[in-house]
Specification:
Length: 307
């Protein structure tokens, strides 16, 4: 294994990188800590290093456990505290921009460019709760979409979601032709050893699926798979007190109330209502919510899944 610090262009920032394998095959980039408070992903990435026999690697794994060190060491919600930007929204970055843009630019030019696949690790942030699920790239060529879906389907989760976004580290990697996924599991307040172990097993399954680890690690799924093509992200129209009515992983019917925003006098300001039958992917679980922020994320079922 090789370890080194990647120098972020035109800054004093350095990011730790671990490389495993002999390079005789495909290369998979694994990133974590793009959101510094999503600690489950960071711990899982660090523990993965000691969970893989390097002699079994067919190709190379490039692992970056903390892409946003400023956010990690200050436990900052979603953003890089120095410029208050969401690192996952600034790819491909700018070498002459703010620190978030410089980090994105360096990761893309120095590491994504060397890779054939990209796995981006996330979890619930400090204000969220999330069910285990996986996004796969959906705004690229059909070949990359299909390979990304195969990667997502290999994890032991019940829901995968085809992304419709063009922002994000993994989406930009897919735009460059690299099959890519984003994994959601655990979070800032859910980092038990069981959750970490499940996360590591997920990663080992994916690596076996893409041929970087032996096929013996391709363990059969325990859950039937729901493939979401239509995800919704209703925003708060008001700042106020947020009362979610469902839980991550809960199935709801069309027209059900998913949550309510009230003012300090308990007057209802906004009711978030579902626009079809589906499942809660993640939601805000803090009492206060700000106007313009996401309240909940949910996926709508296909007609055949409703029947």
């Amino acid at each position: 294994m090789i370890t080194y610090q990647l120098h972020i262009k035109h800054s004093n920032t350095k990011i730790d990188v671990f490389e495993m394998g002999n390079g005789n095959g495909k290369t998979c980039l694994i990133t974590a800590g793009i959101h510094g408070a999503e600690e489950t992903s960071i711990v899982a990435a660090l523990e993965l290093i000691n969970s893989i026999d390097e002699n079994e690697i067919i190709g190379k794994i490039i692992l970056v456990p903390i892409c946003n060190p400023y956010g990690f060491y200050t436990f900052s919600k979603q953003v890089v505290p120095e410029d208050q930007k969401n690192l996952n929204r600034v790819f491909p970055g700018n070498m002459n921009g703010t620190i978030s843009e410089k980090i994105a630019y360096t990761l893309e030019h120095e590491l994504v460019s060397l890779s054939d696949y990209h796995i981006d690790l996330h979890g619930a942030d400090v204000h969220e709760e999330v069910m285990p699920f996986v996004y796969y790239a959906g705004k690229t060529t059909e070949e990359v979409i299909d390979l990304s879906r195969i990667m997502a389907s290999s994890l032991d989760v019940s829901v995968i979601v085809q992304s419709t976004a063009t922002t994000g580290a993994y989406n930009y990697s897919a735009f460059l032709g690299k099959p890519s996924i984003l994994v959601e599991r655990g979070g800032a307040t859910r980092k038990s050893q069981d959750v970490i172990s499940q996360y590591k097993q997920d990663l080992i399954r994916v690596l076996a699926t893409i041929g970087i680890l032996p096929k013996k690690y391709k363990i059969e799924r325990q859950y039937p798979l729901i493939d979401i093509k239509d995800a919704r992200y209703p925003l708060a129209n008001f700042s106020g007190f947020w009362f979610p009515k469902k839980s991550p992983g809960e199935i709801f019917e069309n027209g059900e109330t998913l949550g309510v925003i009230q003012d300090i006098h308990k007057n209802t300001l906004q009711t978030v209502v579902s626009e079809g039958k589906g499942i809660i992917l993640y939601q805000v679980h803090t009492f206060g919510i700000s106007a313009g922020s996401e309240t909940v994320a949910y996926g709508l079922f296909h007609p055949e899944e409703i029947a």
